[in-house]
Amino acid sequence: MNKAVSLISRKMTLRGEKGFSRVVIAISAGSVAVGMAVMIISIAILFGFKDNIRAKILSFSGHMEVTKFTLGENYQHPPISTNSQLFLEASNISGVDYLQPFIYKAAMIKNEELSKGVLVKGVDESFNQGAFADNLLEGKMIDYPDSNYSKQILISKKLSDMLGLNLGEEAVFYFIQTPIRIRKLEIAGIYETGLEGFDENIVIGDIGLARRLNNWEDTSVGGVEVFLKDFRDIDRVEAAVFDLMDYSTQLELVSEKFPQLFEWLKLLDRNVVMIIGIILVVASFNMVSSLIVLIMEKTNTIGSLKALGAKNSQVQSIFFSIGVRILLYGIIYGNGIGLGFCLLQDTYSLIPLDPTNYYMDAVPISFEWGFFITLNILTVLVVAVCLYLPTMIIGRMSPMAAIRFN
Questions:
Q1: Under 8 Å between Cβ of 125 and 95
Q2: Is 112 helix (H, G, I), strand (E, B) or coil?
Q3: Same domain for 289 and 391?
Q4: Are residues 150 and 173 in the same domain?
């Protein structure tokens, strides 16, 4: 009987049906396909945004930052020693990728007409140049000499345009301290992230320059950034790093340092969950409605099958199988449409964005295959469970009444 169920259900689906039933089946499969495509595209864009924003933030700042404890907000932190327990042992914590020391120095950049306050972030060779290189528009990364310090800097395109500074030129920096120190620094590269907090304020320089200005020893730094191999380990690593800190230091997570951006990412998560939930409800409703219409149109066929001795469960299996086949058609086409669009967008950037508002110049795509597979399984389970409900109508149909039905 299973072969008969499969044969009849296959006959009643897209390949065998004609007329109104074929239209109903095509609309049902189409609605599932559109819904599946929208869900795949939504997830790909969501993770694309999250990965892109996180990558931009982490090209400037670590997953967590340890500095000397101070009252109030102060970017120019007192020194901590690279010989401390934290520096010596933190890199051995499972999940930690590397440590990056830094020193912030407040300064003014001046030209003949304008001046702009900035923070010069001094870094050394441990600075992740590979990650930051994606932000470079012109020039190259800083060259670190074997002795003394580098006089090269990286500035943003926004600062370059505002102050009329070009690649290879020297910019005059007035470092805010007592007494004020003046340095001419060469612009080695121009970057752009689209993140206003960075592009308007941050200049990348050599940590050796900052040490010289502060009259610090080579073992003194303003703080250390801890970079992780996986963002999901941040809570566990935070506890381990905290155990290595002494009483005079404080720890700040990147999500606490840039709360607006991470709250925005959480809002995106909630929006996508709502979209997926709504689409699953609509797809289930469409499939149930279509199956009811199909059952009502095939009432005579149902009566004939019952008159020939078919059990209610067997007839129900036929129409349930029809619904599953329609669902699978829709899922296959939906995956093709969704993944195809994602591939085109990822390759050709078909949909542009305003970097001022979205921090990037095109809609980003991330192929999260694990989530795509989970989404497909979830759709099949949810809609299949709903498909069982309309088949219960069949159990209440009498063979004679069904045969006479017009």
A1: no
A2: coil
A3: yes
A4: yes
